[in-house]
Amino acid sequence: MTIYLDGNGLTLDQVARVLYDFESVEIHPNAWQNIEKSRAVVERNLAEGNVIYGVTTGFGKFSDVVIPVGDVEALQLNLIRSHACGIGDPFSERVSRAMLLLRANALAKGYSGCRKETLQRLVDCLNQQIHPVIPSQGSLGASGDLAPLAHLALVLIGEGKAHYDGRVMSGGEALSQAGLTPIRLQAKEGLALINGTQAMTAVGVIAYLEAERLAEFADGVAALTLEALRGVVDAFAPEAQDVRPYPEQREVADRVLSYVEGSQLTTRQGEIRVQDAYSLRCIPQVHGAIRQVLTYVKEKLLIEMNAATDNPLIFSDTGRVISGGNFHGQPIAFAMDFLGIAMAELANISERRIERLVNPQLNDLPAFLSPQPGLQSGLMITQYAAASLVSENKTLAHPASVDSIPSSANQEDHVSMGTIGARHAHQIIHNVRRVLAIEGICAAQAADLRGVDRLAPKTRKLHQQIRASVPFIDQDRAYSEDIERLAHWISQSFV
């Protein structure tokens, strides 16, 4: 089913379908009129000799340098080439694909002044799965994601590199093999392609979609751990949540109770102990607060995905050309830092539950869930690995948005560092998935030792799903592959 872009109604579900299911994309027929009208404003100002930033002037500190009309095309080409100075490992093809989609949607709003041909080539690359090779480092997150988007734009003009048909090749070769021709940038178009927040937003959208799935799994695996440790369910009672009326807290408590309904392992206050440690008792409060962050992040991403974020903006109804600051990534920078902090905490509490599962001083299970404690170490070192990832997350969660370094001779004197925040949030999520996988392995092993037949129906199903990836541990083995297999299942299959 084709997804139509008009710059206003793109949803996260649609983004996921384009990124993961490769659904085709077209510009909505109703959007073309605004696109043509904004382009007409650019052409008219050019013909009248008016001074417009980035059209008849240089960029950044060069904004006061007037460019002769005969050089406006060279200006745009020079912009793309000079700004393509990204460094480091490239973004994944999925991120590159998301950047194509989000930039096309931004241009479809009709405030950027690009030509129909240029926007259509973006869409063509998306549909033909020509994914620009885009270095992941080098953006300050204000004036837009200049370096990453310049690498994207290089492919449109037949330069740079692209993933196509399973290999990396030049942008020109990729276009040629797909039956497409490079575009020739005209006035304003280079600036329209690179002046935006699509790198940080692309990474942010993918991070959010993965975080949402992890939050769901975390509730389920926490419930399995609760059973394996014979946890006290009274703390999850609805009335306890209602007197602190955060809806997300109540949702998590209800979800955990639904997982353990029918369990023969969970306990009530006073049966074994009066109350559990915080990592069990406070699951609704901690997981619920993390869901509050996800709600905030989702709201900001939906706005940014459907925003005009370049400069200057062309208002065709009035003919005004306004130099503003919509390219500044501060809203997404804050959201990404917040997302990273929240997801780091999801791993933090999970690691504490792992410790309770393997530490013989904290439970009545075999030490480290070992089949032969002493001779075999069991799952002892998986907790080390989880602790390492949690510690790494704490360094990655330092907010990128608190930093700013002036650029362009102090013309651009405050920047967001939002792309760094997005990259760090995504790396944190990568680590969180593996911490939760370790908890899943430990909880499943403990459940086997308790007796799987005593699990609740819903957690028994989760146990079976974990066991499909990770067999019962009856002999020490290398656990790295177990962790990676389960982490992959969580990212691909868990619902």
From TrEMBL:
EC class name: lyase
Pathway(s) where this gene product acts: Amino-acid degradation; L-histidine degradation into L-glutamate; N-formimidoyl-L-glutamate from L-histidine: step 1/3
Catalytic reaction equation(s): L-histidine = trans-urocanate + NH4(+)
Keyword tags: Cytoplasm, Histidine metabolism, Lyase
Protein name as it appears in the record: Histidine ammonia-lyase
GO molecular-function terms, A-Z: histidine ammonia-lyase activity
EC numbers on record: 4.3.1.3
Numbered residues of crosslink 5-imidazolinone (Ala-Gly): A142-G144
Location(s) in or outside the cell: Cytoplasm
One biological process term in Gene Ontology: L-histidine catabolic process to glutamate and formamide
Pfam family, any one: Lyase_aromatic
Processing after translation: Contains an active site 4-methylidene-imidazol-5-one (MIO), which is formed autocatalytically by cyclization and dehydration of residues Ala-Ser-Gly.
Transmembrane segments: none
InterPro entries from the UniProt entry: Aromatic_Lyase, Fumarase/histidase_N, HutH, L-Aspartase-like, Phe/His_NH3-lyase_AS
Organism: Ferroacidibacillus organovorans
Predominant localisation class: cytoplasm
Domain of life of the organism encoding this protein: Bacteria
Modified residue annotations for 2,3-didehydroalanine (Ser): S143
